[in-house]
């Protein structure tokens, strides 16, 4: 076991794939000489060369589009999008091309492209640097979407994403990049597309992912002080969603909150609520609640604390569940 | 030839024809069927002999029959849509015949003539328009990628593929490159040239010296919008802004299209980076079978292009020089008839696709939602089988 930050875990995972697979390439804006604006690729160009850790022109559609071409040539490109809000110039390439290439080729072509996107708010930044666009991609078949919340998952999930033959988007919780955790570098503990119960409980379940897992854990702890036993599920994979783990938890607890920074309307929480209603209707003691962003563009930094889900909002939702 | 920048007027030849633009137009076979010399590009057509030209004529004739037959099949309701390429055969076949089997081609969706040169079965191509496939053929077999309907989206793929080729061949000697070097051709049109993906592709290709040839067929019309709305300058001139050469070629001159594409592919193979070819041609037919060109262009304009028809031009040359006779033309006609018969029989006998195949092809690896939904659908279907109703779908 080694202690490292999520940033270091991602860096180490990328390094391992570069070492073990000569076909793995990294490409993105400022990822080479600078090591990325968050230093996730720090030192990799120095060690693996500018042909394998490529400083790209400033063009997101070009980054995704050429990554698709490299994948068709037999490479495993890992494209970095610098910030969540800047993925949209590449949206066409991701949704109409990358996601569909295998289907439209009748299974003949695979395009194992990984897209890394630092996402989420809470960093006091300017416009377009704090968004959570995961639902826009989850709606598109052909993509897989994962989001680690801790160093162990960061280290392994980035490697598993690169090894996967399908396109994978890795949403990285940027405000947790410096969160430290234990990493077992010998072996992964979990399938990247499975959810994990990170805190057992009996009376309610909070499903969270990425940056909100620590918030959900803190809320569960606060609830325990008030005498409530709350289970926390780290979703880990947004597409596919491990509904078996979520439903098993709800069948045990009877109450569910889904929380994410993205707006609740049309979000992942609605999808989970619907599936749980289908599969665990008779287990539910209360309606499924969502704690998420409001229906507005991500607000200015000075009010983002009011916008973001937090411990108090989760406790308020738990109160509603228990008083139903 | 300079590594960057357009070929100088001297390089592109005193014989270049000024047409409706100041940019020189490379031409080796003029509309009257006479061969012309070009100080740069004639060298790339030295081996063009009577046999090769007869082959080109047959290529054009077969492509044109394929086009006509597919249009007829659409009119009969056998195809949902057809995208005619009439008038653009010289640009497509000339450039396609310049490629090697090891090169990789990324077409848009009108490159039926290029497909012929790559050995793609024309009948397979109808599967897309018959509604039984979104891909049609196996792109790996002939290194001819699937058609792409989102305009320009395949051009960054071509560029990325070429970046991969460059990496794979980075330590090759000049002799190895000459002999086995691979290159990539990206086809797009004047309409697609306005898409951002073209710009980004050219930036990437230039920055990484990617061995990709950008082959733009300027057929004058993006459905109903004339070329003047896409660009104020000949598209070939844009190459200079990216730092690689651009050449404007008579797209209805199959010899010139062959020569300039060979030139561009050879320098790409040598590691000298991309080039842009603007093939000036004309879409003699509609945009698709759902289009009505009488709404937006005059018959005068259409007529003005008839005498530049790439097929009659080549036929005139071959007849005037005594390289073909009626027997040859009759044989080509019989070959075209056989092709048409083959197309008709295959178009009506494609195996029906199943939704199960659609489920299976979304992901390479096992996926729980796909499993769940396909299992639900299987159960739903079997319910109808039990009651022998066939369902109400």
Draw up the topology in text.
The complex is a heterodimer of chains A (324) and B (393).
Chain A: E1 2-5, H1 6-20, E2 24-28, H2 44-48, E3 53-55, H3 60-72, E4 76-80, H4 91-98, H5 101-104, E5 114-119, H6 134-138, E6 144-146, H7 151-163, E7 168-173, E8 180-183, E9 196-199, E10 204-208, H8 213-225, E11 230-234, E12 237-239, H9 243-253, E13 256-263, H10 268-280, E14 289-293, H11 304-307, H12 311-322
Chain B: H1 9-12, H2 50-75, H3 89-96, E1 104-106, H4 112-118, H5 122-130, H6 139-142, H7 154-168, H8 174-180, E2 184-189, H9 196-207, E3 212-218, E4 221-222, E5 225-226, H10 227-230, H11 235-242, E6 246-250, H12 254-269, E7 275-280, H13 299-306, H14 310-320, H15 326-347, H16 355-361, H17 368-387
Parallel strand pairs in B: 1-2, 2-3, 3-7, 6-7
Antiparallel strand pairs in B: 4-5
Helix pairs in contact in B: 2-3, 2-4, 2-14, 2-15, 3-4, 3-12, 5-15, 7-9
Helix/strand structural class of chain B: alpha/beta
Identify the overall geometry of chain B: globular
CATH superfamily of the largest domain in chain B: Thiamin diphosphate (ThDP)-binding fold, Pyr/PP domains
Return Rg of chain B in Å: 22 Å
CATH topology of the largest domain in chain A: Rossmann fold
Task: Write the H/E string of chain A, N to C.
Answer: EHEHEHEHHEHEHEEEEHEEHEHEHH
Provide the CATH top-level class of the largest domain in chain A: Alpha Beta
For the CA atoms, what is the radius of gyration of chain A?
19 Å
List the strand order in the largest sheet of chain B.
1-2-3-7-6
